Amino acid sequence: MMSPRQCVPPTRARQSTPSSLKYQYGMNPSAPAEQRQTVDAVSHAMGPLIESIRNTLVYFASSNPGGAVERLVLTGGSAYLQGFGQALSSATRLPVMIGDPLAGVGISKKVDLTPARGREAALATVVGLAMGAA
């Protein structure tokens, strides 16, 4: 008996995985109508995280008079989730940017970073662990 994945040509299967759809459409309100279900599911899943971040910022502000948060920096894979930064910025009324964990880190010329270009924020955990071990 064949699994559902075996019935789909490999090129199609790679393009239509739930993970690829999540990153391609994410929380983007202007996604095509046929992807509305994906956008709704991702938005529903990310809503509690956005609310928790907002609540944490409110708590921080009330506990640290004069110590204001100026911006939010996203790292990790979710930094590239379509619409996430915009939704977080709207909920917190703060600017949101994607962080580069390699900024300020000395990297050997022998290291080829070509595969990571444009996806540096996804390396945040790896860079942090490497720095902790150094």
Structural description of this entry:
49% of the residues lie in helices and 4% in strands. A two-stranded parallel sheet has the order 1-2. β1, α5 (84-92) and β2 (96-98) form a beta-alpha-beta unit. α4 packs parallel to α5. The protein has six helices and two strands; from the N terminus they run ααααβαβα. Residues 1-14 have low confidence and may be disordered.
Cα gyration radius (Å): 19 Å
Distance between the termini: 51 Å
Please count the helical segments: 6
Give the oligomeric state of the chains in this entry, treating copies of one chain as homo and distinct chains as hetero: single chain
Order of helices and strands: HHHHEHEH
Average of the residue pLDDT scores: 85
Give a quick account of the main beta sheet: strands, pairing sense, barrel closure.
2 strands, parallel
Low-confidence stretches: 1-14
Write out the strand line-up for the largest beta sheet, numbering strands in chain order.
1-2
**SS elements, strand count:** 2
